Amino acid sequence: MGKPTTKDLAKAAGVSLATVDRVLNARAGVRQATVERVQKAIKDIGFVRDIAAANLARGKDYRLVFLLPDHDDEFLDLIQTALHEANDSMAHERTSTSIIRAPANDPHKVAALLDTLSAEQVDGVAVMASETPHVRDAIARLTARGIPVVAFVSNQPSAENAYFVGINNAAAGRTVGQLMARFTGAAQGDVLVITESMQARDSQERRLGFDAIMARYAPRLHVRPTMETYGDPARTAKIIATSLHNQPHVAGVYLMNHNIKKTMQAIGKFGTPEDTVIIGHELTPRTRACLLMGEMDAVITQDVGHLVRSSIRVLKAKITQLGTVASQERIRIEIILRENMPEANG
Questions:
Q1: What is the CATH number of the domain that holds 177?
Q2: At 189, is the secondary structure helix, strand, or coil?
Q3: What is the pTM assigned to this prediction?
Q4: 128, 170, 163, 168: which is closest to 143 by C-alpha?
Q5: Residues paired with 63 in a beta bridge
Q6: Closest C-alpha among 134, 132, 131, 97 to residue 113
């Protein structure tokens, strides 16, 4: 049998072709109960719309905006590269993405930037920002203006209708905890935990997951309070130097933030015991080099291209009021060691 058509969909939903067209194109004038009936029929008969053809026929462009933190960060560089690649590959689908930058530690400015976006300018927004009441309310205002939103990398669970695209950060923290417990063997001592800001939801969830596993499997280790760098190189150097001076028996270091360049430079300058286990997040040029040189023991990462493509698919699904394939949008947690990197075996 061929793929279900709009005629098949109209028959399954018990509505006219004109009604199906209005639902598929998110036009007004259709009761919510009818919209839900059509959406149920879509799932029941396995209807898949040819979005590219539909957009071409009605001249529809998808204008998507990604709001990213404005600091220098190798992980953000990877995201921007993935967005440029997506723009090239989706040109025939009449889909384009643009980037706006906002101060990472200023929720007022993040909210103010989001408030400048209108439905006449953009069709959907992906927000990578710390969870605060200001950002939550700005997302609610976007939704009220008819602009779909996804929470990108860092979750916004208090914001209604903001689908999260990213890894399960609590599970990522638990994974680091398991690796730290195993890699440190029978060692005793302190574990330092460093991040840019604990205001970020991903840092909060990673820390909770990490603590749960360390308390269960490695009570011999003393996990210190999280140190926040705020992205400041001078502050980073100071807290690393102070911590290594005050805790001479450092068995492990957990780097929860994405940008570890200054942190690793400070650790290299002030020194840790040779057998200190260091685990971080995101496979960037810096973490890749640290793994190859033996300066880090493991990196927990996620596929940045998948993150970007999934965000775009979810936003377009929200715009067209069509569903997504849950398994396709699930972002996997990956564990990278020096031994499973192609460069180490080349």
A1: 3.40.50.2300
A2: strand
A3: 0.80
A4: 163
A5: 96
A6: 134
Residues 125 and 78 in one domain: yes
The whole-angstrom separation of Cα 34 and Cα 95 is 28
Contact status, residue 168 vs residue 333, Cβ threshold 8 Å: yes
How many domains is the chain built from? 3
3-state secondary structure at position 262:
helix
Average confidence score pLDDT of the chain: 89
Residue 58 has pLDDT above 90, yes or no: no
∠114-101-316 over CA atoms, to 5°? 60
Query: Using one digit for the tens of pLDDT, what is the confidence trace for 308-327?
Result: 999 999 999 888 777 777 77
The answer as to whether 344 is a domain residue is no
Q: What is the CATH number of the domain that holds 11?
A: 1.10.260.40
Tokens coding 249: 């028996």
Same domain, 101 and 199: no
Average pLDDT of the residues in 238-262: 90
Range of the domain at 326: 59-166+304-331
Do 173 and 162 belong to one domain? no
How far is the C-alpha of 99 from the C-alpha of 79, rounded, in Å? 10
